[in-house]
Fold each of these.
Amino acid sequence: MGSLRRGLILAALPTSALAEVCDKVRPHWVPGTPATAFTEMIALFGTPPSLVLLVATALVLRFRSKWGGLGVTVAWAAWVSVVSMVGAGDAVQQQATLEGCVGSPALFILAVAAICIATILYTSPRSTRL
């Protein structure tokens, strides 16, 4: 009876071998490779909204537009909110995190915060008075 209970407990634990959720959430994920904060950051920067925002940020920085800087900062904030809030309560997202194919978005959020701070500081009007 003890081995049956132990077998049921082990079967209920999430493993990468049983990762059918990961096929839906991360189709190109290789089973057995851990999802770290760095790999999650790379995955999130590779999404279409992030790529569009990176290009928009580069254009804003190139033309030093203060209103454009404000716009991309607000857009980045909205995108980070979607990334951090939408999947947080989802059972599929939680199972994918437990199985190891989705990592923490903390490093992505930190990188986006640094991008936004740099954008605001770079595009802010300069004072000519001493």
Amino acid sequence: MTAPVSHTPAARCSWGRIALVAALALSLLLNAVAVGAWLRLREARADLLGPEAAAARLPDDLRQDLRTALRAEARSIRPLLRDVVQARAAVVAAANARPYVRADADAAMVSFRTSLDALLTEVQRVFLDQLDARAASEK
């Protein structure tokens, strides 16, 4: 005769549970890395900008008003921003050119500064217009 067969359940792997635990562990690890990077960035920013940086920050409500004003002026700002991006690409191209020609790199950098100045002038106009409107509404 044969021996009786045991009906105890065999140990089974639950791949779904293993995947879920692995995903949770990976998520926790990535969150820890992100928090660490954020803390290091804050520390580096404080070291670079110094303690005066916090005092030079605009109030949050004014910053929000300025963001709204800049979005409203996107039609005039976008082309200037594209010009800056293209001018920067020209600087990179001149820097990577073989053979490298200093005069070409210098001309590209002058063009970049000109584009950047035009963008800055327009942003400053929007900024000052917003400050004027804010001051007029407070009267």
Amino acid sequence: MERVPILKLGDILIISIQIDLDDQSVLSLQEDLAGRVVATGARGVIIDITAVEIIDSFIGRMLATIAAMCRLLDADTVVVGMRPAVAITLVELGLSLGGVRTALDLEKGVAALEHVRGRGATR
């Protein structure tokens, strides 16, 4: 099983998902991310799903769960790079991803985190 790498940029952790996600890899990501948020004191998490072509209900729920977990650990989460087909699938599955911020790309995701944390100007 491949693990999803977690990169650190300042006080932001960046997860770029480049593999096909299965249930076990998402559970491993959740555990790895929780440990990294605590270990680094990260204030923000960006999950880049640009390469994700298909998402099922479990993966969708886990994205919401990961965002909620990060909030409890004092880190805001933004999901970036969602493809139109993935958005359509999530809506068709009835998954609203409540509480999960989204942005079109990594740059806008970083800006969203800076705005939420009060460090950046509104664009």
Amino acid sequence: MQQNKLDIFETAHHQWSGVTMTARAAVQIIKLMKKNEKIKGLKLSVKPSGCAGFSYVMNMVESTANDDLLFEQKEAKLYVPLKAMPFVDGTEMDYVSEGLNQMFKFNNPRAQHACGCGESFGV
């Protein structure tokens, strides 16, 4: 009887495409960084959530972790934890206005599906 072999995905040994940001997203990150001199940039990560599986988490960064990857555009700095890369690799981050709302939006080629409200995605 043949046993199923489980493939192990090791984040440290993978070649990443990276995460990009539009000019609008970069401008917004720079504005946030300039409001507080302690802020080094933003961190993009994911957490299990919602009906589709995962949601994006954005936090201001005062200190970085050893496994954070840094993506820069001009002065804008976006940090992504290595463990989040399988979920966000290839993502483009934008900053948009929809009516009275302004928000970061993500164009993630790895997202296979999203929930109806747009709050979560699955890979």
